[in-house]
Every structure is written in C-alpha cells, then in structure tokens.
Amino acid sequence: NAGVTQTPKFRILKIGQSMTLQCTQDMNHNYMYWYRQDPGMGLKLIYYSVGAGITDKGEVPNGYNVSRSTTEDFPLRLELAAPSQTSVYFCASSPQGLTETQYFGPGTRLLVL
Amino acid sequence: ELKVEQNPLFLSMQEGKNYTIYCNYSTTSDRLYWYRQDPGKSLESLFVLLSNGAVKQEGRLMASLDTKARLSTLHITAAVHDLSATYFCAVVYAGNMLTFGGGTRLMVKP
After folding, report:
1. Taking CB atoms and an 8 Å cutoff, what residues of chain A touch B99?
2. Cα distance from N-terminal residue to C-terminal residue, chain B
C-alpha cells in the first residue's frame, strides 16, 4: 500500500512552458485535493475532487486545470507557467471528505524561471 | 473570507516545559485539523476535531476545539526534542475546503 504518490519530485520550468503534476492514490479514496505551499506559509487549496468525473475550484485555481477520470489519479496541469507558480505542490486524499484524516503525498517542488 | 491565525509564529522552548499553540478563525466552522510538518517533508495529520468541545490527545500533544470562541488549542506537555517541527491548524469551510493557518515553528532545546 503506497498511499499517495506524486511525480516528479522536482522540476524546473521556463516561463510559458506547460507541465502535468501526477498524483495517484491506492487507498480507494473518493476525495482528492491539490494544494500549494509557498515558502514559510500554510497550504492553499487549488482544486479538489469528490469522485471520478467531478472536480471543483479551491481558493487559488487560476493558472491550473485538473481532471479526474479514475478514482486513483488526479493530475494537475499547469498551462503557461509563471514565476508566481514557483511553489511546493501537495496532493492529498481522504475517504469521504473532511470529516476524516487527509493523507498527503510527498510533494513536488516546482521552480519557474 | 475565512481567516485563520496561529500564534505564536515561532516558539523556542526547553525540554520538559509545557506550552500552548493557539489557532483563531474568523467565521463559523465546527471542524478543524492539526498537522505536523518536518522541514522539507510532507504533512502528517495529528488530530481531526469535529465538534464543539472536542478534545483529543496523542502522547504529549492534546488538541481542543471551542467553536463558540472560534478557537482551537494545541497543548504540549513536557516537550521533547522530537516534537520540533512546524504545526499547522486548518479550518473546514464550505463543506470541502480547508483554510490553513500560517504555522507555528516549534523548536525544543535540550
């Protein structure tokens, strides 16, 4: 049982490039989340999903897109990367929403230059 | 807009001492999380508090929630070096969203 896995661990992007951050969980959780954490700060919610085929915006969705075609996978797409998107990105999952423990992935560190 | 404030932002304490971290939030919510984050690492869930008056304890940490005061506390008893980390509270709103506090960086000195 690997839990929540994220790839890549680290990536450098040039301004204007695009990329997809991968997130997979093997716990059959319905709820999945994407957060970003800027240095010295708490996490901010980007997007979340309550099940396959259903996604919704969080607090800071601009510049990002998501999809949820399966229960296991919840990729985050960055289009036209900007320096303001330099951050650490965490994916998380929970069985049934925010009345239970969230399990976090190890994070992806992204640097946009 | 929900605002979540933690204090102190930084706490240096001696081993064996007790201390409390405070988490205040600005609008009604009855669910709150506490997390621990070690440097360069991911977040580990410590407590999920689901109702007014909820109290949970694990080892030297005890968390409580007062929804009427919009306040949660994380109490550390007889601190040890291994508790050194950053602690975040996060408040649930709009059903499926979490707003995080800015974190409290705890350093426990021998």
Report:
1. 45, 59
2. 41
Domain B4-109, CATH: 2.60.40.10
Task: Report domain extents, chain A.
Answer: 4-98
E-strand stretches of A18-75: 19-25, 31-37, 43-51, 54-57, 64-66
Residue from A43, A60, A99 whose CB has the most chain B CBs within 10 Å, to mutate: A43
Contact A58 B97 (CB under 8 A): yes
B50 and A99 within 8 Å at the Cβ level: the answer is yes
A30-88 per-position pLDDT tens digit: 999 999 999 888 999 999 999 999 999 999 999 999 999 999 999 999 989 999 999 99
For B47, the 3-state DSSP assignment is strand
In residues, how long is chain B? 110
Task: Please name the residue of chain A whose CA is at the shortest distance from the CA of residue B2.
Answer: A59
Which CATH number is A4-98 given? 2.60.40.10
Task: Map out the domains of chain B as residue ranges.
Answer: 4-109
Nearest-CA distance A58 → chain B (Å): 7
Contact criterion met (CB < 8 Å) for A104 and B88: no
Distances (CA, A) of B77 to B20, B38, B55, B83, B110: 9, 19, 15, 10, 15
